[in-house]
Design goal:
11 strands, alpha/beta, five-stranded mixed sheet, 229 residues
Length: 229
């Protein structure tokens, strides 16, 4: 018997349709680069943000930090021109975030050969009879110094007042950082044990809390780059 020849469709069955695969796109749009910006940090004289600035440079290499010197007397107004600032308290304003950082001890600055420098530390009682030079940029506020005398000449900026004290005319009372900043060979200083301290704080506007500000706050508080806020 003759075998039946398979129909063409049976000898060559239709191929199954290929499964659709997802198309791989290699030219997907990249995220836009961050806009160039600068973080402006204000600091009153005597504040020492060096270690925090170094940490910022390591953590935020693409955002330059500009250090802006501000005066304690005008520090509130200066906050409008910077992202954050190291200021001296007291500063009361509900529109600001204020984080106290550290307290500075006060010191008595006098001529290097003054009898006051014979002691390792001084108290208010040791200053009886001394002439106290007033400061135009005072940061400690009114001092209770019974038995002392106010200089008869006008108040002076701290640097000029220390230069005057070095001549033996009187004494100056300032936070230790300012005494060190205006150090002279002909002047020296001693801690005033019972004098008022000066608190340095980090401050910024509540309405201008940006990711950069939060990063700097984290650096100041000792958080690492991987820490949660």
């Amino acid at each position: 018997m003759r075998r039946n020849k398979a129909a063409p469709a049976e000898r060559f069955p239709p191929q199954k349709p290929k499964k659709k695969t997802a198309k791989v796109v290699f030219d997907s749009p990249q995220p836009e680069p961050e806009a160039p910006r600068t973080f402006r940090l204000g600091a009153v004289p005597g504040a020492t943000p060096g270690k925090w600035i170094d940490a910022w440079k390591q953590r935020m290499p693409r955002v330059p930090l500009e250090l802006v010197v501000i005066e304690a007397a005008t520090q509130r107004a200066a906050l409008e021109e910077v992202d954050a600032a190291l200021v001296r308290l007291p500063l009361t304003d509900d529109s600001l975030h204020i984080i106290p950082l550290y307290d500075e001890v006060p010191v008595v600055v006098a001529a290097a050969d003054s009898h006051l420098m014979a002691a390792e530390e001084l108290t208010v009682a040791d200053l009886v009879g001394e002439v106290v030079i007033a400061l135009t940029d005072d940061v400690l506020g009114p001092l209770d110094l019974p038995g002392t005398h106010t200089a008869t000449f006008a108040a002076l900026p701290t640097d000029a007042a220390i230069a005057t004290a070095a001549s033996g005319v009187g004494i100056v009372i300032v936070p230790m950082s300012l005494a060190r900043m205006h150090h002279r060979k002909d002047a020296d200083h001693r801690i005033l044990a019972d004098g008022p301290t000066s608190t340095v704080a980090l401050v910024w506007s509540r309405e201008r809390t940006t990711p950069d500000v939060e990063t700097f706050v984290g650096i100041v508080r000792g958080r690492t780059a991987n820490s949660s806020r």
